[in-house]
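Re-run requested by the PI after the first attempt was lost when the workstation crashed. Everything re-entered from the original request form. Ligand of interest: 4'-deoxy-4'-aminopyridoxal-5'-phosphate.
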Amino acid sequence: MSRFFSEKFSSLVPYTPGEQPKDMQYVKLNTNESPFPPSPGVKAAVEEQCGKLQLYSDPECTQLREKLAQVYGVSPNQVVVTNGSDEVLNFAFMAFADEQRPLAFADITYGFYPVFAEINRIPYEVIPLKEDFTMNPADYIGINKTIVIANPNAPTGLAMSLSDIERIVQSNPDNVVIVDEAYVDFGGESAVTLVDKYDNLLVTQTFSKSRSMAGARLGFGIGNEKLIADLNTIRYSTNPYNVNRMTEAAGVAALEENGYYMANCRTIMENRAWTIRELEKRGFSVLPSLTNFVFAKSNAIGGGRLYQELKKRGILVRHFGKERIKEYNRITIGTLEQMGALMAAIDRILEEGNL
Ligand code: PMP
């Protein structure tokens, strides 16, 4: 830390992104990216924009918001687009939480929530998941806090039913409930269908997982027009050109070829079922996932050790050191070939013994 670093950030612990090592070619199952490339229209759209980079992007992102509104059955004024969904989450925390409206979220959930809370100096309550890692909806009923729920949750992969989400939204009418649906396209139920009914519901999604665009950084929020206007106040006060022109064009093109991405999601769901079966055959317990990853624990080798042994063999998964989940690894679902390589590596590790 330099002697110039502001006192107000001196105890800030930044978010740790999944590693992106460059020392060798890994089978990358650690950051929940899609194994499939973007559709052909995306490449063409980005190429076209390359020749126009001297011009600023459209701060209103009109084309993309219109396209999203069409796909999700809402009006363009109910949509805000951001630099990844991380940004819409940060904006939402800034806009809808403070000392009077502290945050509430689960103990085991997306690791960025406490970081966004800290950087914005918002107090927060951490609500433990149940023993089986499911959320207890009763813990969130009428708590008068700004609630953020990853649904499905990460890193567990478990989902809450839409009726439970609705009960939570309904019982906290004076607070915004943010439903982070980064993984909803892999079998979850979206709360977007409820945004016209509740003025305190904000749904966030991303192009990073189901639409193969993690590197383009594109996320969005859908909610009541007034909530979206508030998010735009924050956006225009920080970075009105938050989505660059290549990314906006890529997003529009991706939505025009939505069928390709939804078919990929079905393939991932099939590969997930295969992966769960194969892990179980090898003595793993695997939580029932509705995402593009599984959260799994071996009956023979500790979580940290398995992560290390897989890495040595060129396979990267994500391990979290937190006490409650340290025996688990989060494994992204890739192609069957990648999942086959994972199983072969696990077989070698278990055969070699010395665990
Ligand atoms: N929410 C959850 C639950 C996530 O796991 C992630 C991915 N790290 C995000 C939001 C943010 O993803 P992105 O900024 O790439 O949209």
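Saved to the shared folder this time. The mean pLDDT is 97.
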